[in-house]
Structure formats: structure tokens, C-alpha cells
Amino acid sequence: GGKPLAGGLPLETPFGALVPPNITPDHETGIGNWSEIDFRNMMKTGVGHDGVRLYPAMPYPAYARMTEQDISDLWAYMTTVEPVANKVEANQLPFPLNIRLAMWGWNLLNFSEASFQADPSKSAEWNRGAYIVQGAGHC
Question: I want to staple 92 with a disulfide (CB 3.0 to 4.6 A). Which of 10, 17, 85, 121 is the partner?
Fold first, then answer.
């Protein structure tokens, strides 16, 4: 029942509760103090503006496939969303999953910053669909 993009509704998983962040441009509780470069780095590398590695429930491994232009366009949209002051709780994960340093290991094993590569043997329409599904559509 909250406001769009303001986060806070816990997602219960077998590993604990993940709490989506407030991604509105609110300066106190959202991403209002982020730069476009911060946003791009989060989308492409899974590292937040504070240097903390995100959990892969935020599908940055898929978003890394997005083009720079699409990420820039998404940022432009995000800056137009109504800011919502909504301080969200922290994720509720048990040890050792609550140790963010473990995400470095997960990324070494599972993450590539490789961009989407079109398949030249397929049509432009097929490649566009593959790009959407493998990148932005993952969320």
C-alpha cells in the first residue's frame, strides 16, 4: 500500500527478508543525492553510491547488459518521479548472509559486466527481444 518506488515492503525469501530501498529522488531517504554516475555504477556493477556491494536480488547482473543510453534514459526518468520521504528498514538476513563482504566472492563466481551481444544469425527483432529479456526485463 505504499507509494510507487518508495520501497520498504519486505520480500520474504528462504534466506531472510530483503527490503527494497527507496529509489525515489528524495534527498534524505532515497536516491536524490546520487549522481547519474552513481546510478550507472550501481546498474552496471552492483555497487551502491556508498561503495557497498548490493545483494543480487537487485538484478544488476542482468542490468549490466543494458546499453549506456538506456541506463541514462532510465536515470532521466527516475529524476522526474515524485520524491517520497520513506526511510526503509535494513535487510533481515542471518549470518553469514548479512556480511556484505561475501558479495565480493559471489560476484567473482557469478557476475560479468559484459554487455549484451547481438546474435548476427538472428533478426533485429529477435535480438531486441533478447536484449529486453536478458537486461531490463529481468526485473
Answer: 17
